[in-house]
Every structure is written in C-alpha cells, then in structure tokens.
Amino acid sequence: MPEGFAEKRCRSILHEFKTARINQVSGLTCSIGIVSDNDCASFTELYKKADEALYIAKESGKATFNLHEENEKRNSRTS
C-alpha cells in the first residue's frame, strides 16, 4: 500500500460523513481504527488490533482515526 494511502482514505471518509445529508440530518461523525498486516497475522489478531485502534480513536474525540502499525502507533484527527 502506498505511503499515506490509509491516512488519506480515512480523511476522505470522515469528510464524506461530515458533509453528507441523510433524511435532513447532516454533520455526522465516525471513528475509524485500522491495522496493517505485515506479518500475516490471523484474522483474530488483526480484529483485536483494529478494535484497539478504534477505541484509541474514540478516546481521542469525534471524527478521528487511528492507524495501528507494528512498532508505531499514529493517531490523527481531522479539523
């Protein structure tokens, strides 16, 4: 996956939620947790790491995402 792809995609998804209008409701938010698989981990391991990344994002506030990568944890928030 190209460098920065996941972060750009997360920002795009968060923007789409923020600008969407569904049944007269707008300004929706979401939190996203992502894990990259460089070690051929099992589905259960990946699911657990993605769930942890999601809760890190949720603890950081609304409209956030967390990318969990081996040896590095990054958290970003949209403005």
Task: Describe this structure as you would to a colleague.
With 79 residues, the protein is of the alpha+beta class. The chain is built from two helices and five strands, in the order H-E-E-E-H-E-E. The chain has helices at residues 5-19, 43-60; strands spanning 21-22, 25-26, 32-35, 64-69, 72-77. The strands form two sheets. The chain has a three-stranded mixed sheet. A hairpin with a 2-residue loop joins strand 4 and strand 5 (72-77). The radius of gyration is 14 Å and the shape is elongated. The model has no long low-confidence stretch (mean pLDDT 84).
Produce the secondary structure layout.
Blueprint: H1 5-19, E1 21-22, E2 25-26, E3 32-35, H2 43-60, E4 64-69, E5 72-77
Parallel strand pairs: 3-4
Antiparallel strand pairs: 1-2, 4-5
Biggest sheet character? 3 strands, mixed
Strand proportion: 25-35%
Amino-to-carboxy terminus distance? 25 Å
Number of DSSP-assigned strands: 5
Radius of gyration, taken over Cα atoms and rounded to an integer in Å = 14 Å
The percent range for helix content is 40-55%
Which spans of ≥5 residues are poorly predicted at pLDDT below 50?
Answer: none
Order of helices and strands: HEEEHEE
Rough shape?
A: elongated
Mean pLDDT: 84
Structural class: alpha+beta
Feature tags:
single chain; 79 residues; alpha+beta; three-stranded mixed beta sheet; two-stranded antiparallel ribbon; 2 helices
What can be said about this structure in brief?
The protein has 79 residues and is an alpha+beta fold. It is built from two helices and five strands; from the N terminus they run αβββαββ. The mean pLDDT is 84.
